[in-house]
Amino acid sequence: MLAPRLPSPLQEVPDDRFARRGLRLLLKRDDLIHPELIGNKWRKLVPNIAAAGGRPLVTFGGAYSNHLRATAAAGRLLGFPTVGVVRGEELAGRPLNPSLARCAADGMRLHFTDRTTYRHKSEPGVLAAILRAAGAEGAYVVPEGGSNTEAVRGCRALGEELSEHADVVAVACGTGGTLAGLAAGLPAGRRALGIPVLKGGFLDGGVQALQERAFGARCGDWSLDDRFHCGGYARTTPDLEAFAQDFEQRHGLAVERLYVAKLLYALVALAEEGAFDRGTTVAAVVTGRPFP
Fold first, then answer.
1. Which of 146, 147, 210, 145 is closest to 184 using CA atoms?
2. By three-state DSSP, how is residue 268 classified?
């Protein structure tokens, strides 16, 4: 039921915006690892499921969280209970949106909490109160986005899979766990590039802290470019939408908008700026695909 396709496929994409600058573009198709635990969700969740040891798993996310959907699917496939703590209060009498309805159909028990409490969920006292209110005391807790020590170590394999294939490996970043593990798995002479999809410029310290907890120190050659968030998480612009549609038409690939579109948009812009030396092979990690 959880048989993965690993290593995930590596697909070269002929694109004149890169070719005319002497660059190659590869897509690391992590979206094809598993039909329901897609991309970095597989790499992050599976080590946490093992660490949970069969205990109920509680995690956090917004009303359209892909992480919640993947966790709920894993619970259904493997037969363990899941609880999703959802940011924002439930609207009485209103149906669940399609994303949360899928979570519920997969057996996830949803617990809504107000945004003020949610912002403080990492504080021990607030977390304990949330778990009590959700009836999830004693559950194994996975943070929002799934980024913790187990997840970061799981994502190290992504860098190892790409070690002989690309000079620069780029990934869209939410909480930074995938970048932290990816960079640790790349050998000397290769570098990782993170494209944050949230604004705020806070992620550098977060990625370093994740690496320190997972590996004892900052490791690997990595950097962030936070110019391409388009206003913040789940925000878009007409230019980004037009770019994503054009990329789909050029290459026959459905482009997920929250993360992957911003990543590819950034890489095209960086290529046009001359950010990569001629002869560079750039790999873009496709961490997800559009949900139906």
1. 210
2. helix
- Residues 44 and 154: their CA atoms lie apart, in Å, by 6
Alpha helices in the chain (DSSP H): 16-19, 40-52, 66-78, 98-105, 115-119, 124-133, 149-162, 177-185, 203-215, 238-251, 260-273
Residue 156 CA to residue 128 CA, distance in Å, equals 31
Domains recognised in the chain with CATH numbers: 10-35+149-285 (3.40.50.1100), 56-138 (3.40.50.1100)
Number of residues that this document lists for the chain = 292
Question: What is the secondary structure of 42-89 as a DSSP string?
Answer: HHHHHHHHHHHTT--EEEEE-TT-HHHHHHHHHHHHHT--EEEEEEB-
Tell me, yes or no, if the pTM score tops 0.90. yes
CA-based angle 130:138:42, to the nearest 5? 85
Q: Running along the chain, 292 residues long, what does each successive block of 10 average in pLDDT? A: 88 98 98 87 93 96 90 94 93 83 96 95 96 96 95 97 98 96 98 95 94 98 97 92 98 94 98 98 94 64
Other beta carbons within 10 angstroms of residue 219's beta carbon come to 17
> For position 291, what pLDDT does the model report?
66
